[in-house]
Amino acid sequence: MNTKDFLQHVQDAYAALTDLSIIMLDLQHQPVTKVSNITKLAELILFSPDKPFPPSCFPNGDNIQWQRPMVVQTGYWGVKAIVAPVLVEQKVEYFIWAGAFIEEETKPIIKERCSRFPNSQIWLQVIEQTKEQTISMVEKKLNDIEKMAMVCGEYIRNDRQKQHYKQYFHLLDAAVDSARRFSLHMNDFLHMFQKLDTDIDFSLYIKRRNREWVVANAVGEKAEQLWNKHVKTAFPPLSNSLFHSRSAVCFENVALDPRFAFFAVHGVKPSAVVAYPVLHGSEIDGWIVIGSQTKCSLSKEVVQIGTILVKYWQLYSEYELVHIKMDRHFMRLSMLIEISRAMNVVKDTDEILRMMTDFVAELAYGDFVFTVLADHKRKVKVHCGTISEQQVTEYYEDVCQRYFFTEEKLLETIPKLCETKFGTVMEISFSVHEHMHGVMAVHMKHLEAAKEAEVYVTALIGIGTMIMKQNNYHGPKQQLNMDMLSERLTSREMDVLNLLVQGCSNREIADRLFISIHTVKNHITNIFQKIGVNDRSQLIALVYQLNNRKYINEEHH
């Protein structure tokens, strides 16, 4: 239903309710609707050839202060009507005329006056048939017409807002479609701003770098000269008074404003500028600035659409960030699973300790990882990263003093952030059993990564200590090495093992060795039993560790 039809339906309903003839007019007194519930008295007034409608007492469009309905003269002495303004966002846009009626105890006087009208006989007959209205009846009609004006004004406001939203959604849909088709970059996004209005000459993205603000992206014929230029804090959005604004800031007639000299120095002379803050969480991460060199101000609609686009960019950026974080978490979880399987195969405690340290170092939270494990016989220390032997020794002595010479501290399993001369270090103590305790120290470059580090490091320590505890419970076993592996397996089993490690399937192994798949399966079963593993992943992890250990031993020798 369009607006005109809706207004007509509302008018018809209120005409029946008030028993008045009603019509709506615009500010130029042109009809917007057809007359509803035309009475004989209203017909004489509305269609009189002697006095064209509306009468001179009717309010004009400049009377914007008029806010409430009122009773007015119709131009025919004693015959009255109600006129009500229709407000749309506090501004009069239409009028409602509702009439005509005569108030109580005025009929004799009106009849006397009517005798002087042309066609007086018709007037006298109509006045005689018209029912007089009491004060309370007129007040009720005033209230009803005021409600009608409010309903119409609210509908018009909502309908216009709906049209604006449709326009916004079309633009937003275009932005979403662009992001769907390719990875949306800031330059692509700035081009969208220039499509908001043909008078927008440039769009910039000003970003903080260290302690300075720099034009990180620029779109526009002259604006490209601004790329990578430093912006001084005299520029209003960067000033203290506006910096904490969370909404768009508009500037009009800025051509001669010295605060915008940054643009003029580089050949850009805007007349109107709008700056949108780009938020990262609750902090302002940058400003998107659009400007026109021809218009002194940009329309409210353009500013509103720009606000929606900026919010979309923030959502898109947050989604990209979350997507990257999810990928990293999945990768690290996969690494954690694989290292857990490998530790379960490698039964040597020292080797497990080294694998734990190497894994945490690969997570790259800081410059080094240091681990020490002690029992009543010895202390084993392992480190990885850019920490020298002298620093290792100093840190080792400090850790031993704080953890292994004080029984109470070994009971603290909650990670602690300690300030050292190397910077911030996360220390996590753990116990394998009552006589074997350890500490892992992870250097932290950025404190915001501490929570993530705590999750992965504590999970790894939990798995590692569980495996070490199982190994100690079953007693010491002979350490497996590559030479022992070749002694335990036949030459054909070694051939099968080499192809397994390369990732070949049973069919590929059978084809390469010219044997049946059934024979391949038998060889694989024998290999599992001889080495003590349950599946291919454990086998591959074991071989990888043995080859790595052999390489390290050859390096040392």
List the helices and strands and how they pair.
Elements: H1 3-18, E1 21-26, H2 40-46, E2 70-73, E3 80-88, E4 91-103, H3 107-114, H4 120-129, E5 132-133, H5 135-181, H6 186-194, E6 202-209, E7 212-219, E8 230-231, H7 240-243, E9 249-251, H8 261-265, E10 272-280, E11 283-292, H9 300-345, H10 349-363, E12 368-374, E13 379-385, H11 389-404, E14 416-420, E15 423-433, E16 436-443, H12 450-473, H13 482-488, H14 491-501, H15 506-513, H16 517-531, H17 536-556
Parallel strand pairs: 4-5
Antiparallel strand pairs: 1-4, 2-3, 3-4, 6-7, 6-11, 7-8, 9-10, 10-11, 12-13, 12-16, 14-15, 15-16
Helix pairs in contact: 1-5, 3-4, 5-9, 9-10, 9-12, 9-17, 10-12, 14-16, 15-16
Q: State the name of the first-level CATH class of the largest domain.
A: Alpha Beta
Going by helix content, strand content and strand pairing, the class is alpha+beta
Q: What is the total number of structural domains? A: 4
Instruction: Count the DSSP helices.
Output: 17
Mean pLDDT: 83
β-strand amount: 15-25%
Net shape:
elongated
Helix share of residues? 40-55%
Regions with little confidence, pLDDT below 50 for 5+ residues:
474-479, 549-557
End-to-end Cα distance, whole Å, is 89 Å
Number of strands: 16
- Radius of gyration, in Å, reads 42 Å
- Strand order, sheet with most strands: 8-7-6-11-10-9
- Main beta sheet: strand number and arrangement? 6 strands, antiparallel
CATH architecture grouping of the largest domain: 2-Layer Sandwich
Query: Any idea of the CATH topology of the largest domain?
Result: Beta-Lactamase
